[in-house]
Amino acid sequence: MIVLGLTGSIGMGKSTVAQMFRDEGVPVFDADACVHQLQGPGGKLVSAIEAAFPGTTGPKGVDRVALGQAVLGNDAAMRRLEGIVHPAVQAERLAFLATHARSPLVVIDVPLLFETGGDKSVDKVLVVSAEPAVQEARVLARAGMNSPKFQAIIARQLPDADKRARADHVIATDIPLAETREKVRALITCMRDSEGR
Where do the structural domains in the chain lie, given as residue ranges? Predict the structure, then answer.
């Protein structure tokens, strides 16, 4: 099995590319979706997060806006939150890998792959990238997003140029979708061929 780490800064099109891998039959572990589940109604992490950050949860699980206000720009609070979330996500990822142990290729979709040292636990890294103006336009079009919040998120992420320099593969997402999909298909073929499958 090849474990391909998929990453890219906010607004770079990572979710779109992850879906392209799924469309080609490649199992994808989505770390963000895992976090949403763990923090959703009845999620495993809700009580621990409420204990650490009182008033940030309710009947629908974690109130992401309230939690964001509690941790963004506060390094100690962010580290405390990561200490709760990261071990739980790691356990879910290991379960995913065990479930798909016979697959020739799996994708681990992690926004902060380099920032958390996750690149050391995958075989290859794919970075998705777009021009800064495209990235910013995509992010600011999201509900509840504004420029200061975008800048705070970017400040916590390794710069795109550094991610691209450390990647084994880079796929552009500021080109027509069909072209991005062809690049994904070519990468899948290349990786499977390298394993003789």
Answer: 1-27+104-197, 31-99
C-alpha dihedral sign at 60, 141, 151, 88: positive
What is the DSSP secondary structure assignment for residue 121, as one 8-state letter?
G
Task: Of 11, 15, 21, 195, give the one whose Cα is nearest residue 107.
Answer: 21
Of 139, 124, 97, 108, nearest in space to 31 by CA: 108
Token pair, residue 35, equals: 């976090």
Three-state secondary structure call for residue 100: coil
pLDDT in tens, 161-194: 999 999 999 999 999 999 999 999 999 998 887 7
- The CATH label, of 3.40.50.300, 3.30.1300.10, 3.30.460.20, 3.10.310.10, for the domain at 1-27+104-197 is 3.40.50.300
Q: What is the pLDDT of residues 65-122, one digit of tens each?
A: 899 888 988 889 999 998 999 899 989 999 999 999 999 999 999 888 998 888 999 9
Residues near 149 by beta carbon (within 8 Å), at least 6 away in sequence: 68, 72
pTM as predicted = 0.84
